[in-house]
Design goal:
The protein has 163 residues and is α+β, with helices and mostly antiparallel strands. It contains five helices and five strands; from the N terminus they run βααβββαβαα. It has a five-stranded mixed beta sheet with strand order 1-2-3-4-5, with helices on both faces. Strand 3 and strand 4 form a beta hairpin.
Amino acid sequence: MSLEIRKATEADTPVIAWFIRQLAEYERLLPETTMTEEILHENLFGSRSCAEVLLGYYQDRPVAFAVFFHNFSTFLGKRGLYLEDLFVIPEMRGKGFGRDLLVHLAKIARERNCGRFEWAVLDWNEPAIEFYKRLGAVSMTEWTIFRMTGDALDRLANERTDR
């Protein structure tokens, strides 16, 4: 089975939104999803785009996607490639499509001289964790991800710094 991988364009915004909703449902995060096609379009294809998307097609049908962007490692002095999302629709899993997308992303990371290729995985997602380990990825157990959103982000942004 061959997966055709291509970079998403503006016309793919509805497909990307569909994939994100599918992923959010799988990860039990659909109630927290506030993304709209308009928000996606602006942030992926607007003047200040901040991420890229790959779409995977099998027999002209979209079956997988990956969202990624660059981060920066001060210790390496180089940018890295961060995989925000990788999703293969359930009926197409086990065919190597997720691996194909990761290989494609690793090649992009090498072409762009990235020092790292990183991503996060939910701790309950054992199939994904085992899949990543089989590829040679290692868990960064000594690191804890922190996140600030909503009211907490607003409170911090509104604090005064002129003491």
